[in-house]
Amino acid sequence: MKLIIAAIKPFKLEEVREALTAIGVRGMMVTEIKGFGTQSGHTEIYRGAEYAVNFVPKVKLEIAVSDGMADQVVETIERTARTDKIGDGKIFVLDLAAAVRVRTGETDDNAL
Predict the structure, then answer these.
(1) First to last CA, the chain
(2) Deepest in the core among 3, 8, 45, 52, taking most CB within 10 A?
(3) Secondary structure of residue 81 in the 3-state scheme
(4) Rg of the chain in Å (alpha carbons)
(5) Which of 91, 57, 70 is nearest to 25 (CA)?
(6) Bridge partner list, 63
(7) DSSP helix/strand/coil, 29
(8) At residue 40, does pLDDT exceed 70?
(9) Which residues contact 84 (CB under 8 A, 6 or more apart)?
(10) Coil, helix or strand for 36?
(11) For 82-105, how does the pLDDT look when each residue is reduced to its tens digit (9 = 90+)?
């Protein structure tokens, strides 16, 4: 099993969710986050004063999938979240040691 963690632009969330549902992803966790990378941040003007915004809003997706589905999920997120502008995000793939469905006690692939 794999755990896929993706940080994407917030306005791309619904499009990514629809694309993942279409390929068979049955669930994901979504968290609103702030961060910086190459995009760093930007300056804004509020009431005539300029100030720096160091952290940029993003959405973090966490998706647990079987090994065989991981590449397709990564490709789908990459294709759907891309705007070809700086700050499109990152995708990380980690090995997932175990999964348990709390309601039924099912484990590993059956719990996904």
Answers:
(1) 9
(2) 8
(3) helix
(4) 17
(5) 70
(6) 4
(7) strand
(8) no
(9) none
(10) coil
(11) 999 888 999 999 999 999 999 999
Which pair of structure tokens corresponds to residue 111? Answer: 């719990």
Lookup result for tokens 């306005």? 11
If 0-12 CB within 10 Å is exposed, 13-18 middle and 19+ buried, where does residue 89 land? buried
With a cut of 80, say whether residue 61 has pLDDT above it: yes
Please compute the mean of the pLDDT values over residues 43-69 and round it to a whole number: 84
Residue 7 CB contacts under 8 Å (≥ 6 apart), including other chains = 33, 35, 58, 59, 60, 61, 89, 90
Residue whose tokens read 């755990």: 3
* Rounded Cα distance, 44 and 68, in Å: 44
Q: Which residues contact 58 (CB under 8 A, 6 or more apart)?
A: 7, 8, 9, 10, 32, 33, 34, 35, 89
DSSP at 94: E
